[in-house]
Structures are given as structure tokens and as C-alpha cells.
Design goal:
Blueprint lengths: L2 H15 L2 E3 L5 E3 H4 L4 H5 L3 H17 L1 H18 L1
Antiparallel strand pairs: 1-2
């Protein structure tokens, strides 16, 4: 896995599983729930969980590909400038 792939995976994981959307009543909703993914499958354990999570990450990336790729470009440019 090259550096670009690692950054991509980290961005998708953080955005999808570690961020929240504010609901109408001010309630914090996990982004993966707001995006329509199955909460029970994501919060379960085992081999089915692993496959479902990877499928969710792949799908989320495809939906947001242009923005995520721009973010990766900016991160890599900043790294190069910082050296």
C-alpha cells in the first residue's frame, strides 16, 4: 500500500466512522448512520462485519472521490513544502 492509499484509507475511516452530523433536534448522529449504512452491521463483530465495513468505506469513497482526492493532493503538497 503506497502513501496515497494510506492517506485515503485514513480520511475515509475518520470521516465515516469518527465524525457526527447534527440532527434536527441537536442530536449527534454518526456519519455512517446519516449516510444510510446499517448501524447494527457496523457495530457488530466478526468476519461479516469486516466485509461490510470495507464495502461501506469503498462506497463512501466512490461517493466523495473528487473531494477526497483533492484533500490527499493538499496533504501531499503540504508534506513536500514542509521538508
Amino acid at each position: 500500500m503506497n502513501i496515497r492509499d494510506r492517506i485515503r484509507e485514513e480520511i475515509v475511516e475518520i470521516e465515516l466512522f469518527h465524525t457526527y452530523i447534527m440532527g434536527r433536534d441537536g442530536e449527534k448522529i454518526p456519519r455512517y448512520v446519516a449516510e444510510g449504512y446499517d448501524r447494527e452491521k457496523i457495530e457488530a463483530e466478526g468476519s461479516i462485519w469486516i466485509m461490510y465495513v470495507w464495502d461501506c468505506m469503498r462506497d463512501y469513497y466512490e461517493k466523495n472521490k473528487e473531494r477526497i482526492e483533492r484533500n490527499i493532493d493538499e496533504i501531499l503538497k503540504a508534506e513536500i513544502r514542509g521538508r
